[in-house]
Design a protein that fits this description.
Order of helices and strands: HHHHHHH
Helix content: over 70%
Radius of gyration: 20 Å
Number of strands: 0
Distance between the termini: 29 Å
Number of helices: 7
Shape: flat
Largest sheet: none
Strand content: under 5%
Length: 247
Amino acid sequence: SLACPDWPLCFGSAFPKMENGVQYEHTHRLVATAVGLLTIALSVALHLRRGEDPKAAVMGYVAVGLVCFQGLLGGITVLLRLPILVTLMHLGTSMAFFCLTTVIALRVRDRSSGTTQDLGLAALRPWVALAVGATFLQIVLGGAVRHTASGLACFGIPLCNGDLWPSHPGAHLHMLHRAFALALGTYIFALAAATRSFPGSRVARLARLAAWLVAVQIGLGVLSVLSLLALSAVTLHLGVAALLLAC
């Protein structure tokens, strides 16, 4: 993350030597720029059809605002040398942007195809909203574990260094992430079970997918600990968390 000490260029160049970590940090910036440009294009497209769907147009404007704010947070993260609060805001904003673009995609597809949902599912909205909020909080909590170097505070599963609740503050954060994951996973399984009365609906299919993602996520969490935070395991752990949030 600190391979490029300046911003928006890297060592004063838009095309620095891709070595010593620069390949990760600068590629991240280039992809972010591409995402920003695509978001602007999406917003323009939604604006042009605002007469058909004004809410989607507003979502497009918000998406542009989020991606600009995200770019600003990225710059501040580099210039201030990874302050925890800013890095967590950077993570949270990225997840909010991902969710918003997912909603836009589904809304546009549904209006184009005339898809409707069973009205009986409306009663589940507050419970699904709770799942969304809790999943978002769990992702941010995981980011806090990562950026405070608490990921290696606990060795072993399910206990932490042989204790159910260790004395080290970093281990407290780590175990809180585990405990919240257990509670959230149980809740999502219950939510999936509640949608079984609507077997043909997209909501029920997404709920089943969410339950499977929880199972995969637990496995990746265990793998992250046992592999001493191997890059592939930790990256997949965050990626599956984002998919779960979108579900």
